[in-house]
């Protein structure tokens, strides 16, 4: 299968190793706007993202290997592709239950566990050794960082970032675009567009689409799920 990887930073290095290790996957290009022009390294084209259109062929799959949820979403919205054109991939060491579902464009990194009946949306990252327990639902464009644990029946809105080694107790909801600090313990629902840290968590910031503002009252209204 022809694969085009978008993004050539830290997260992409891990995704690239996953894809290069697959026998039937052939990486034709790694696109990133840090490249001003196209060139080849060992037969793989490195070029700006604008090269995508001319490199697409029938059956080519695209993976956006960028850790930042907002940037991933911006790129998906700019590209003229359907969800089915995006690759979903799980590292061979990951455990994905047969009853779990993984959306188009999502990557499941080494040693992650997606347990029974869990649902991972589209364009999300379940990072190294993260655990998404049974019946949990992960929204599109989310990122569950290394070693984080979502216990059973946890749900997240779109664009949620769960920091490394954070723990979410069963049944809690993380509102869209919320950010959970590394090592935090979530024992209550987290409002949308908020940043929560600590064990148990406290809210330290609220924002709209990552744009900080001091109008707290207005934000709290808008932040309702
Ligand atoms: C493979 C990979 O690398 S995947 C990437 C994984 N990335 C992560 O896990 C990063 C998660 N990010 C964090 O934990 C960050 O600290 C954030 C996003 C929660 C907060 O970042 P910032 O907004 O810059 O907060 P800032 O550093 O200014 O701290 C604000 C307050 O929160 C506290 N705080 C920040 N992070 C945490 C945390 N994880 N746990 C507890 N308290 C925290 C600070 O001590 C500070 O407290 P104070 O106001 O009482 O002094």
Automatic annotation (TrEMBL):
Pfam families from the UniProt entry: PglD_N
CDD domains: LbH_AT_putative
InterPro entries: AcTrfase_PglD-like, PglD_N, Trans_hexapeptide_repeat, Trimer_LpxA-like_sf
Active site (record annotation): 134
Transmembrane segments: none
Chain residues that bind substrate: 67
UniProt site (Increases basicity of active site His): 135
Domain PglD N-terminal: 2-79
Residues annotated for acetyl-CoA binding in this entry: 143
Descriptive protein name: Acetyltransferase
Organism lineage: Bacteria, Bacillati, Bacillota, Bacilli, Bacillales
């Amino acid at each position: 299968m022809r694969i085009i990887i978008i993004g050539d930073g830290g997260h992409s290095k891990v995704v690239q190793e996953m894809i290069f290790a697959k026998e039937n996957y052939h990486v034709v290009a790694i696109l990133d706007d840090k490249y001003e022009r196209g060139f080849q390294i060992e037969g793989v084209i490195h070029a700006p993202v604008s090269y995508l259109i001319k490199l697409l062929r029938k059956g080519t799959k695209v993976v956006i290997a960028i850790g930042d949820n907002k940037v991933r979403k911006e790129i998906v919205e700019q590209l003229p592709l359907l969800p089915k054109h995006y690759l979903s991939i799980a590292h061979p060491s990951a455990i994905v239950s047969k009853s779990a579902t993984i959306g188009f464009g999502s990557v499941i990194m080494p040693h992650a566990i997606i347990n029974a009946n869990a649902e991972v949306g589209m364009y999300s990252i379940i990072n190294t050794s993260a655990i998404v327990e049974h019946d949990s639902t992960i929204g599109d464009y989310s990122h569950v960082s290394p070693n984080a644990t979502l216990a059973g029946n946890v749900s997240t809105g779109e664009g949620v970032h769960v920091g490394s080694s954070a723990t979410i107790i069963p049944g809690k909801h993380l509102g869209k675009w919320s950010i959970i600090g590394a090592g935090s313990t979530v024992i209550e629902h987290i409002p949308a567009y908020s940043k929560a840290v600590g064990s148990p968590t406290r809210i330290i910031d609220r924002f709209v689409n990552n744009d900080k503002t001091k109008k707290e009252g207005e934000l709290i209204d808008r932040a309702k799920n």
